[in-house]
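Aim 2, interim progress: modelling of the beta-D-glucopyranose-bound target.
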Amino acid sequence: MLTLILAAAISTATPVLREDNIQQIVSLLTLEEKAAILVGCGSTAFDGIGRNDIGVKGSAGATHAIPRLGIPSIIFADGPAGLRIDPERPGTDKTFYCTGFPIGTMLAATWNPEIVEEAGRAMGAEVLEYGVDVLLGPGANIHRNPLCGRNFEYFSEDPVLAGLTAAAYIEGVQSNGVGTSIKHFAANNQEVNRLHNDARVSERALREIYLRQFEIAVRKSQPWTIMTSYNYINGVHASEWPWLLTDVLRNDWGFAGAVVTDWGGGYDTAAQIHAGNDLIQSGSDSRYKALIDAVREGRLAIEDVDACVTRALELIVKCPSFKGYRHSDAPDLEAHAAVCRSTADEGMVLLKNKGALPAGPDGVTALLGVTSYSFIAGGTGSGDVHRPYVVDLQQGLSDSGFALYAPLDDFYRTYMEDERWRCAMIDGKNSWVIDRERPIEVIPSALIWEAADKSDRAFITFGRVFGEGKDRDLHYSYHLQDNEIQLLRETSAAFHEKGKKVTVILNIGGIIDMQGWQELADAILICWQPGEEGGHSVADALSGAVNPSGRLPMTISKGYEYEPTALNFPRIFEDKPFNYSFYRRLEGNKKDYTVKDIDYTDYTEGIYVGYRYFGTYAPKHVAYPFGYGLSYTTFRWSNMKVARAYAESDGALYRDSKITGYIVSVDVKNTGKVDGKDVVELYVKAPGSEMDKPARELKAFGKTPLLKPGETHTVKMYVPLEYLASWSETAGAWSIEHGRYRFIAARDASSRGLRRSLRL
Ligand code: BGC
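Predicted structure of the complex, ligand included:
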């Protein structure tokens, strides 16, 4: 009797969400509840960046909880250079700082997915311990043009480098049992008019360049979520496009996670749900109502809603918030600072070295440039992490045993104090549309000449900060300013007269123009925006405590006018003070096609982005090629081998049925005098007879471990067969042309390297 009563009670009680009853829960949800799950809680304040104070203060967004069915709210927070939440909360003295890691571009510059994964593990641990469920990163858009304001968040101009770096980042973060959101899917390559710009791009370029890195990351690492971009692609909003979100992402690539809008992205909620954009963030009452009305009025099928709710619940059951994880609010920031330093150590790119480096710490160092005294750890906007501190170069060098020339130190200390009140922002904190409000270089000439006399070398840092919501200003951000060049000119004259060397450190989120000044420097080191431990990492590289082993993840051309996209990208000059991100919105959200590069941008260069263009059409316009970077030691490569890799079973995609790809190996020997790591970049030159193909394309790469002088290591790289395919517009399919393929193991996109040929 008792058993019978119990059984009846159990069957009538409302079930709660479990991993194995999602369909049952979907069937029990009302339409209003479904809409509440899909449309986020909204932002409690909008400071230009999505923010949310539900659960975790300063996170970006959350989903609504449905307590009667045991469905918790889950929390999203930015990324990508670590976790972005508010460092302070009312009513407590406790702080909630997060480690500021190196920017995405610098992660790619390591050419080392293992170290990126380690950084990801540390970021993910902070996500977990601060009670967040999904980190809004990595940023994986292609560097189509050097002036894109968010390039610093993104990895590279090359989709293979970007894809493999993204995959490693995702794996690292998600190993903590928290999610990622790779963004912004897709073709979000400019900030100007980002909500309304239409990226008009061929299907081939889309598939080979702008989607490829997302594909690699999805196939390899299954991010829990993917974030659609604000822009239109060929006339359709990315978040409203079934082809992109369902046909390609889910059906072709096998994406098993949830799709989330960018914050406030797209207009038509019903179209988004129908397209397979599951979660609408950050959400608003009008979006919630729009979804319900669309179903009631028969404009949106309930099956589409249920598919999205199912995927949302599948995401929720994986989250720490669902699992009842009791977060500590005390991640190991000290250990993560060490990870930040070692990651940045590995992404330093030594561009030039005429006997100037390594230098010190012995002797006296003259440290110049305002940025040396106010380092830029990261870019601005939602990608700006609230880090506990930033080690600038002055501190980094001092901590590493360098003696700095004191009168310069004194000069800069006073000058920077005076400037702090004048510049709204010196180091990029808490702001997002400022890319040039940095103090100008005003150092008296006599001080430079005195320093040249009394010290052994000069280090000068030039910095650039920029970020979300605005593209870079060609004049102020891309070019060095007269006052900067003047400082360099004078320093170079004074130090060279005394036979002493001058090193320039570039603390930048994206490349700058190199013409007209680089010959004044004996050495140039790009330290990017290296995160909170920046000054220490730069000191490591300058002194040689760590041998630089980073490589450029983009081409540096001989001038902006040579960029393949220069004529099809917004030109930002100071005299055009419009609101960059929200410009050109028409009444009733109608799309307008009046202003070139603002209403629409034509990707006329097709697949010829970055080195694909320069290597094929304009090699002489390259200042530093993609993949370039020097070392303090030398390496010799030999014994290059290319072997076929076979599938264990059938099912390969292409006509050479059982071959799945190629394994390429190269022996790398350290032939110099100090320890170092080397990178082998594997390019392939396709026959290019049936199809239009670039001179070469990166297909794989490998980095050695730290090699001692005399030590040899075999770098093994895998090229999946499908990486050799191109999208044929005529056939509407991937195709691998027949003929002779050249595998080129090279130091960069321009150098000759070792070669092996193979017929396919
Ligand atoms: C950005 C996203 C970010 C989101 C939430 C948007 O403005 O484009 O990258 O994740 O805000 O802050």
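The domain at 2-323 is CATH 3.20.20.300 (TIM Barrel). Residues 1-10, 44-49, 426-433, 649-656 have pLDDT under 50 and may be disordered.
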